Amino acid sequence: MKKEHLEMILEDINGKFDLVLEGYTALDKKLDTRFDELNEKIEINSFKVDTLNKKVDGVAAELKAHRLDTEAHRKVYGVRED
Questions:
Q1: Where do the domains of the chain lie?
Q2: Residue 77, CB half-sphere, CA atoms under 13 Å: how many?
Q3: Model-level pTM?
Q4: What CA–CA distances, in Å, run from 23 to 4, 27, 35, 37, 58?
């Protein structure tokens, strides 16, 4: 095999290798973007869940206070549990 022919083959292989590297770089950037988007959505959902938990805790506290008040006035309100 002649030196010129071998150089052409190596250049071709180099070009193909560069294309593969470009593909991996593009894929890496795309994965990073998706990862960042997913993290942002997780943070938003975590905030919403925390807010909902606080609201549920508030309703539970109000319900407990109401029940204690109602039980304290059992004769007036006539609370029954069937």
A1: 3-77
A2: 12
A3: 0.58
A4: 29, 6, 18, 21, 53
